[in-house]
Amino acid sequence: MADPMKIRARLQGDKTQVIVSMSHEMETGQRKDAAGKTVPAWFIQNVKATHNGKVVFSAQFGPAVAKNPNIGFRVNGAKVGDKIIMNWVDNRGDNRTDEITVTPA
Q: What CA–CA distance (Å, rounded) separates 103 from 74?
């Protein structure tokens, strides 16, 4: 299982700013190892955030995204104490889910 995501969710006015750092190798499938063999592709494909059971952010990644990707987005309607749940799934079927509580700015 991958390392936990680092997530920050702060209420700023009527919107919540969410910043996420995901720990993942993000191999493109084009790099060669020391023996000259191609390292298989291994990358996050889908990212999703939910608030109160509703999807508030989703993205599809490909092999060109950098190692340990970071994303940021804003959520309307979240209040201090609400939970934001983040989930990613990679091309091998591995997944990670973490949650954060919205805090004041």
A: 14
b/e code 12-29 from CB counts within 10 Å (16+ = b): eeeebbbebebebebbee
Q: What is the pLDDT of residue 1?
A: 63
**Looking at the domain 6-104, which fold is it?**
Immunoglobulin-like (2.60.40)
Pairwise CA distance, residues 53 & 49, whole Å: 9
* Structural element, H or E, at residue 3: none
- The whole-model pTM stands at 0.92
Average pLDDT in the chain: 96
* Residue 20 pLDDT greater than 90, yes or no: yes
Give me the residue spans of the domains in the chain: 6-104
Buried b (16+ CB within 10 A) or exposed e, 78-105: beeebebbbbbbbbeeeebebebebeee
